[in-house]
């Protein structure tokens, strides 16, 4: 997992509430065995019609949001099933930050495990960011969002901040305890797994 520091990008506004993981990446695309390749299926049913033509009225199909790394959405983002593929699809598409008034718990946790920064902000601030047309900067170390006209602070758990800043996934976190695990294995005469 890459270390997260600062992201400067335009905002992709997804002004929808209760966006569930089935909408983020539909079930028929969950056949891949690796974490990559899911970006092309992100919001598939909203992005494409039955003939797989792009729908001109969906925000991701608007060229001005191409290469955006910041998604701003409505309340309860990531609800529904607990599939980690939803975060993989967002990350593979290019989003590194998701800002919303609230997230589903499992989705929120999966973001941190995969290097995506989910930021919870008050509804009134999210509404302003949905209208933002210039670039904004998200600074994880400083816990700030800088718009052309404002600086917004955000809260984050210190442990979650640490794992993003250091680029630590669950395996990397486990390897931090390699010496202790090896010592325990020797003491217990358990075959080494590391």
UniProtKB/TrEMBL annotation:
Phosphoprotein: is it a keyword of this entry? no
Q: What SUPFAM superfamilies is this protein classified in? A: LeuD/IlvD-like
Q: Please give the pathway this protein is involved in.
A: Amino-acid biosynthesis; L-leucine biosynthesis; L-leucine from 3-methyl-2-oxobutanoate: step 2/4
Query: So what does this thing catalyse?
Result: (2R,3S)-3-isopropylmalate = (2S)-2-isopropylmalate
Against Pfam families, the record matches this protein to: Aconitase_C
Q: Which domain of life is it from?
A: Archaea
Question: Mind listing the UniProt keywords for this protein, alphabetically?
Answer: Amino-acid biosynthesis, Branched-chain amino acid biosynthesis, Leucine biosynthesis, Lyase
Q: Which biological process, per GO, is one annotated for this protein? A: L-leucine biosynthetic process
Functional note: Catalyzes the isomerization between 2-isopropylmalate and 3-isopropylmalate, via the formation of 2-isopropylmaleate.
Recorded family membership: Belongs to the LeuD family. LeuD type 1 subfamily.
Q: How does it assemble?
A: Heterodimer of LeuC and LeuD.
Its protein name is 3-isopropylmalate dehydratase
Species for this entry: Nitrosopumilus oxyclinae
């Amino acid at each position: 997992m890459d270390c997260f520091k600062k992201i400067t990008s335009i905002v992709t506004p997804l002004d929808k509430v209760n966006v569930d993981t089935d909408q983020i990446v539909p079930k028929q695309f969950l056949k891949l065995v690796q974490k990559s390749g899911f970006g092309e299926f992100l919001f598939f049913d909203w992005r494409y019609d039955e003939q797989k033509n792009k729908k001109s009225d969906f925000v991701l199909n608007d060229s001005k949001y191409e290469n955006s790394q910041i998604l701003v959405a409505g309340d309860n983002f990531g609800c529904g099933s607990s599939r980690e593929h939803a975060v993989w699809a967002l990350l593979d598409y290019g989003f590194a930050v998701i800002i919303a008034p609230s997230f589903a718990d499992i989705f929120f946790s999966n973001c941190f495990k995969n290097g995506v920064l989910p930021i919870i902000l008050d509804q009134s601030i999210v509404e302003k960011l949905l209208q933002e047309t210039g670039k904004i900067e998200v600074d994880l170390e400083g816990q700030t969002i800088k718009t052309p006209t404002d600086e917004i602070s955000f809260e984050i758990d210190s442990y979650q901040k640490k794992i993003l800043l250091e680029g630590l996934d669950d395996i990397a976190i486990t390897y931090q305890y390699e010496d202790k695990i090896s010592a325990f294995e020797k003491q217990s005469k358990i075959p080494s797994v590391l």
